[in-house]
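This is your field. Please look over both lines of this record.
***
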Amino acid sequence: MAIPISNAHARRIFMERQGLSRPPQRSLGAAELYQLIHDLGFVQLDSIQWVERAHHHILFTRNQTYRPDHLSPLVERDRLLFEHWTHDASFIPSAFFPYWKHRFAREEARIRASWQKWQGDRFDEKSFEETLSHITERGPLLARDLKSDDHKSGGWWNWHPSKTALEFLWHTGRLAISARENFQKVYDLSERVIPAEHHGAEVDQVTFVDWACREALKRLGFATHGELAAFFDLVTPEEAKQWVSDHRDELAEVLIETVDGKPRASFSFVADLDRLLDAPEPPARVRTLSPFDPLIRDRNRTERLFGFFYRIEIYVPEPKRQYGYYVFPMLEGDRIIGRVDMKADRKAGVLDVRRLWLETGVRASSGRIEKVEGELARVARFAGLDSVRLQDGWLG
């Protein structure tokens, strides 16, 4: 018989699994930071620095002692993390590299076909081996190091052949990102970046699918087979569905209450049930979330569990935006209570807060607004800013 789980408890389970129930002021050394990222599974990167880059904001939301300079040593010195693709570019534990080899193999034919169609005559496979030889002989480089003098710059649609080669070789695992310089990728041979014990390890197909589904369910707490497949974006929904079927003796069916009261059938590990059903309440404080926070990455799951509709409006023409270019959801305890339009004005040294929108039914009480202002002050300090500037009418 399926086990019913209330909506409030489901939120607490998911938040605990996503590292949002931990003490926010606990000291975060290198080992603890690595463990946090390992427990999350990955941390998504994003180039936009509206306040601070997404990967830094995601970690700060979970621990207020985190600072942006804490991350790069794990990637560039200790090689505990590598950069590659889940559903988007992410920092991933290097111990997971053997499983990503299956992604590399799957992606190679797909990328070759799609990029040939996209680039036409500019898709020059000769440049792949030439680029690989160049890096082998001369060491790590940035894309600009190979750019021809007569190439006209543009977006991704106008990559020069060597940039295409670098990205193809990275997507298919022969190159890795050794470092970032002003957020520009520094490419090197994978065997010079990924620790030997992970680079040389191999896992078979059955082990790969089992790992991808098992590790996803650990981090989600409860999931459908579609949610398992989407978590790392490594296996297909059909593979995840078969995995669920093959492991029913380990899985309990649970009925997750959504915000509209409708139950949604999902699965959890039987061995995890006692811990899941004892999930703690998260801290009651207010926290801002990056638009790419893993708590809200699956927008449909966010709506079902939290009743919160969120879409990033970067690509929406300004007159059609409902909220703003880059708006941050706000979490209070286990509820998403609203969103805030804020931006770092680095020249003035202030966090410029333009507008706060609270969700329907969320009161702008003095106590709540005091907590919101406290969080804005924390975000400003985290971003290296001196103060917060609340614009006239910021409360709506």
Notes: The first helix runs from residue 7 to 17.
